[in-house]
Amino acid sequence: MTYFKTFGQFLTSFDLKTNSKWFVLSVLIGVVAGLGAIVFDVLTQVVQHNTLVSIAGFDHPQTVGEHSIYEDSDKVTHVSPWLMLVVVTAGGLASGLIVYNFAPEAEGHGTDAAIDAFHNKRGIIQPRVPIIKTIASALTLGTGGSGGREGPIAQIGAGFGSWVAGLLKLSARDRRIMLAAGVGAGIGGIFRAPLAGALFAAEILYSNADFESDVIVPAAMSSIIAYSVYCLSLPQHLRFMPLFGDSLHHTVDSHGELIPYTILSIVLSLAAIFYVKTFYGTNRIFKSLPVKPMFRPAIGALLTGLVGIGMYFLFEKDIRALSVMSTGYGVLQDALTSAAGLSIPLLLTIAFVKVFTTSFTIASGGSGGVFGPSMVIGGCVGTATGRILQQLWPELVTQPEAYGLVGMAGFFAGAAHAPISTIIMVSEITGNYSLLLPTMLASTLCFVLCQKVHLYQKQYPSRLESPAHRGDFLVDVLEGSRVSDVFDPERKIQLIHESKSLDEIVHSLAGTQQHYFPVVDDTERIIGIFSEDDVRAYLYDETIWKLAVARDIMQSDFVKVSPDDDLNTVMQRFTSINVEVLPVVDEQDPGILLGMLNRKETIGYYNQQLMKCKRAGEECDE
Fold first, then answer.
1. ∠ CA 330-201-196 to the nearest 5 degrees?
2. Average pLDDT for 217-235
3. End-to-end CA distance of the chain, in Å?
4. What stretches pass through the bilayer (predicted)?
5. What distance in Å separates the CA atoms of residue 201 and residue 115, rounded to the nearest whole number?
6. Phi, psi (deg, nearest 5) at residue 498
7. Which of 257-266, 337-346, 466-475 has the lowest mean pLDDT?
8. Which residues, in sequence order, are bridge partners of residue 555?
9. 59-84 residue pLDDT tens
10. Which of 211, 170, 188, 199 is nearest to 30 (CA)?
């Protein structure tokens, strides 16, 4: 604890009330996220080497840009399918026991948990969650479970950012920014895509075309640092190489190629819808199983192993068929570089089955990300579609591998509602920006076509709906608006003279829809107000009807507003005293009644302003 206290004193020595604080904090988050990515990568390889490789003989293929710490050791080439089934099931069991006994919040894919913390938990992530997530995910992926790396890495960065914000007693807004910056750092580091990491952190929070603009600069800085730190752990020749190598140089040779890319977008959208519905359908089935939650990941891992073994024998022991397990990046590397070596049935089957193995592994409560499997599914669907279209239009479709690259972007853009960051992400991890035009086309079309499905269910449509901004927009929309913008001075109001008897008042209520009644004196100056409820209190005793007058039942100490009053202040008054109508009086002479302001009309005006903001795309910041 002494170290933590000293660390906190060091950080607070900086001026944390200025924008310069984000430089210090972002660098710190980036360093931790980069180190976390290294630890997670090494831990996953250690688990894999000592389980899948040593016991089952399965060493899954990697991408050109990946580095194995065991690459100089003798690799086992004889795969034992049934031992692989034991290993993957044991990994699921170990992951479930660790998660549900120490941090149940770490189940499933971690990015959704970080999104939920941003919107609904004031940016708070318990410090134990990233640690448990890292261990559980390494066990899941290292033993052959189908998942991605981004979930645990995102939670490491997000959890550290949240913890530091709490240590420094920063505001909830600053803690949310640091959480999101941590997500960007983790993604940018592990995928070696710093720009995409920053944009991903700002975009993935919302399902509509909205950005958390405050996040972009801190996330960019932390992502750069995380990328740099992670690359230091790689050999010199791999440090700045994209994940899938630097030899992907596909091109667009004619505008006519946009037609098959449009067809690809439709195929990808259908695949993305199938993926999301299968994933959450599987999740509902597992939650309904009459077993303890900690054992469900083992069942999911067992099913994953059985399906993987089935694929292995179905394709005559082709090791590439086992890409439905673990990350599966090896077959994706082949799909992007030498599509002719992969049959169309193999590509489509891997994509189809990967949907189920990922659902079994993660939707059962296992720990891992969903972005990695999305790339494999999208890439295989894209390359297979490219191969098919090449047979139909050989002169137009000359590079089926390019369809795999575009497929990666379009598929995830549709499923996760993150078109901009996905375009940059795929371009960075492949080192190829020459397909930017078809990638933008596919990502945009898939985003539009997949509006009704959500891979990340904790996303909110936009900043207007997010609880993180709930207090912001009420002030912004109403600020500058006046009472005079809402109330109608021409509306007829029934005035009650102060001497009018209760008997006359009771009988007059039957002929009016008015619920609040101003009381005036001989000069028609307002001196009080009463409601139907005030009258109802006297109805039990008719003897009082002749004796009581309006002055006896009115409230003389009442809240009133003037035409120039700010509507935000008026809304606060409505809420504080819980009334439906407020009298509007002359600002210079409060005795002159100008009209009545209705609470429902004020709320209606507020909703109209919100709709105007949405249509005009206005920024509604404090």
1. 50
2. 91
3. 37
4. 22-43, 82-103, 177-202, 258-276, 297-315, 335-356, 368-390, 402-426, 433-456
5. 9
6. -60, -25
7. 466-475
8. 529
9. 878 888 888 887 654 454 578 888 99
10. 188
Q: Are 297 and 364 in contact, with CB atoms under 8 Å apart?
A: yes
Q: How confident is the model at residue 388 (pLDDT cuts 50, 70, 90)?
A: very high
| Cα–Cα distances in angstroms (integers) from residue 302 to residues 83, 85, 297, 361, 588, in the given order | 12, 7, 8, 9, 79
CB 156, CB 125: distance < 8 Å: no
pLDDT score of 269? 96
CB 62 within 8 A of CB 330: yes
Residue 599's pLDDT is what?
83
Query: What's the DSSP call for residue 52?
Result: I
- Taking alpha carbons only, the member of 152, 153, 142, 137 closest to residue 189 is 153
The residue among 372, 430, 413 whose CA lies nearest residue 187 is: 372
SS3 of 197-260: HHHHHHHCCECCCCCCHHHHHHHHHHHHHHHHHHHCCCCHHHCCCCCCCCCCCCCCCCHHHHHH
Per-residue pLDDT reduced to its tens digit, 451-461: 889 998 888 88
- How much is the pLDDT for 276? 94
Query: Would you call 447 helix, strand, or coil by DSSP?
Result: helix
Q: How many CB atoms lie within 10 A of CB 342?
A: 21
The CA–CA distances, whole Å, from 588 to 561, 562, 563, 585 equal: 12, 9, 11, 9
- For residues 530, 533, 537, 541, the Cα torsion angle rounded to the nearest 10 degrees is 90
CA-nearest of 477, 430, 496 to 620 is: 477
Give residue 163's pLDDT: 86
- Kindly state the helix (H) or strand (E) to which residue 609 belongs, with its residue range: helix 599-616
Q: Are 170 and 122 in contact (CB under 8 A)?
A: no
Whether 476 contacts 126, CB under 8 Å: no
DSSP-based three-state secondary structure for 326: coil
Quickly tell me which residue has 């003037």 as its tokens. Answer: 562
Confidence of residue 238 (pLDDT cuts 50, 70, 90): confident
Q: Please give the mean pLDDT across all residues of the chain.
A: 84
Answer whether residue 13 shows pLDDT above 60.
Answer: no
Residue with tokens 């667009």: 252
Domains and CATH numbers, the chain: 18-233 (1.10.3080.10), 255-465 (1.10.3080.10), 475-608 (3.10.580.10)
pLDDT above 70 for 379: yes
The tokens 């016991």 sit on which residue?
Answer: 55
Lowest mean pLDDT among 8-17, 69-78, 414-423, 520-529: 8-17
Query: pLDDT tens-digit profile of 74-110?
Result: 454 578 888 999 999 999 999 999 999 888 877 777 7
Helix (H, G, I), strand (E, B) or coil at 497: strand
The size of the chain, in residues, is 622
Q: Hunting for tokens 């640690």 — which residue is that?
A: 131
In sequence order, what DSSP letters do the residues of 90-144 get, joined into one string? HHHHHHHHHHHHH-GGG-B-HHHHHHHHHHHSTT---THHHHHHHHHHHHHHHTT
Q: Give the Cα separation of 444 and 457 in Å (integer).
A: 20
